[in-house]
Amino acid sequence: MICKKCGCDTFINDGEMLICAQCGAVSVDIGIDLNESVTNQLNQIETETGNATEEIQAPPPIEEVIAEQQAAEAEAEAKEPESEAAAEQKNEPEPEDDKSKKSQKKNKKKEIFEFCLPIIIAAILAAIIKMFILANAVVPTGSMIPTINEQDRIIASRLSYLSNDPERYDIIMFNYPDNEDTKFVKRILGLPGEVINVIDGKVYITDSNGKRFAAEDSFVNTNEPPRGTSGPFYIPKQGEEITTDGSYCYAENGMNVGSTSFLSKYCEEENGKYYVEENLYFCIGDNINISMDSRSWTNKYVAESKILGKVIFKYYPKFEKF
User: Fold this and answer.
1) CB atoms inside a 10 Å sphere around CB 316
2) Are 258 and 251 in contact (CB under 8 A)?
3) 258/297 Cα distance (integer angstroms)
4) How many CB atoms lie within 10 A of CB 142?
5) What does the alpha-carbon distance between residue 233 and residue 85 come to, in Å, rounded to a whole number?
């Protein structure tokens, strides 16, 4: 190699640069050995460059590409049946036996529900009727003979006195004044403000206007002559003032209406005075000779709020309307 500037053929190799030893001109080292034929060196460089290019750019053989593609497809096919099997298993219909068992179980529940539903409805209706409409009872004694016999079953209407007051001769079911856990059945004979006298088994009434008359006795037991004398009994009116001497209570007309228990049972206190709280009724049994009723009770009167209903019929052992 000869320096183009000064013609010197001596160069100093400084890495990639060649420096002229005489004038210092710089030339690029193109990798050509000056002691070897330039043509041979150029051919060698071209060959190496071509091989490198081929090594970098040449695509893989078609056989390898096809083989890789086939392997990928085979792998995908192997996964696909597994996925399809899982989907089929998920959507697979239940076996007939399982379906049949579930259907039988469902039908059995339905049958039980359909069987129990009418019973439940009937029980609810019976409870509603018993609490708000009708009262049912078995009469344990013969105090109402001949109208109601011992062990007769009776029905009372709870609705009878919603808009009407009890009337004389009504047969009523009520909480016994001396023990309200017990139910009694008697006939009303005395109304508020009246006086009751029983003379030789015959009941006489003096009403609030002072008129005296004998009570109806067509319902009284005639198997033996009525007997017994008691009274007079005064039935205080609602709102009437009651006084007490510490042992007994007295109405405004001065008549004895009972012991001091009358106050707590039938009265309310206002400013140190006692007033009858509600309507009171005097009741006697039709079998007057043996009946335990208002004539003998400690708390002689039936308060209107304690009346459970008006007896309207008996249904056992035979039906009879009152």
Assistant:
1) 10
2) no
3) 10
4) 18
5) 99
The answer to whether the beta carbons of residues 161 and 311 sit under 8 Å apart is no
Q: What angle do CA 264, 265, 268 make, to 5 degrees?
A: 55
Q: Decide: helix, strand or coil at residue 29.
A: coil
Distance from C-alpha of 44 to C-alpha of 36, rounded to nearest angstrom: 12
pLDDT band at 131 (very low <50, low <70, confident <90, very high): confident
Spatial contact of 191 and 198, defined as CB atoms under 8 Å apart: no
3-state secondary structure 186-242: EEEEECCCCEEEEECCEEEEECCCCCEEECCCCCCCCCCCCCCCEEEEECCCCCCEE
What's the rounded Cα separation, in Å, for the pair 104 and 30? 96
Residue type, 167: E
Q: Tell me, rounded to whole angstroms, the distance of Cα 45 from its chain centroid.
A: 99
* Cα angle: 165, vertex 171, 173; to 5 degrees: 85
- Span 72-109, pLDDT tens digits: 777 776 665 555 555 555 556 656 666 677 777 778 88
Strands 17-20, 11-14: pairing is antiparallel
Residues 6+ away with beta carbon under 8 Å from 256: 234, 248, 249, 250
pTM of the predicted structure, to 2 decimals = 0.65
CB proximity list for 161: less than 8 A, separation 6 or greater: 304, 307, 309, 310
Q: What is the longest distance spanned by two Cα atoms in the chain?
A: 178
- CA dihedral (29, 33, 39, 41) positive or negative: negative
3-state helix, strand, coil in the chain (%, to 5): 30, 30, 40
